[in-house]
Amino acid sequence: MQQNNVFLFLLMVSLVFVSCDSNRVFDTYKSVPNKWHKDSIISFKVTPPDSTKAYNLFVNLRNTNDYRYNNLYLIVEMGFPHGKTIKDTLEYRMADPSGKLLGTGLTDVKENKLWYKEQVIFKETGDYTVNIQHAMRENGKVNGVIELEGITDIGFRIEKSQSE
User: Fold this and answer.
1) Most CB contacts within 10 A, which of 55, 63, 108, 133?
2) Residue 47, in any domain of the structure
3) Could you tell me the CATH number of the domain that includes residue 71?
4) For residue 46, is it within any domain?
5) pTM, rounded to two decimals
6) Residues 46, 105, 36, CA angle at the centre, nearest 5°?
7) Tens digit of pLDDT for each residue in 39-54?
8) pLDDT at 48
9) What percent of the chain has pLDDT over 90?
């Protein structure tokens, strides 16, 4: 009986923390099986709730200690409802100078919330598509990393802008 009370208490506390994220508008992850192939594109379909408000956009990433690079290059493409696309090549720092992985988490899985765009207003009505692909290269090599190890999940997040 005592064990059930502890479990119930922990469940209630975790629900409070999860529900306190009032800035979240869209937040979802997709798993990367074993290794992230350079041709594998992770896609998210987004229907923004309000075309008059500004939002901040993030790429969320979970990685393990198997990730062996100090940085990460991503190609992020946003497709608008009426056909226009914007493609960005982004670089993120993933480790400090000593090689210790950045991000939050107490286990060997680290979670990173990476800025993509800020103060975005979704003026077009309809669904937007966000495609994310890695573009990693090793120093001194022309060809890219075929299979990137250590990335377990890729996510996309939209938050209400703090200036609202």
Assistant:
1) 63
2) yes
3) 2.60.120
4) yes
5) 0.83
6) 55
7) 999 999 999 878 899 9
8) 84
9) 69
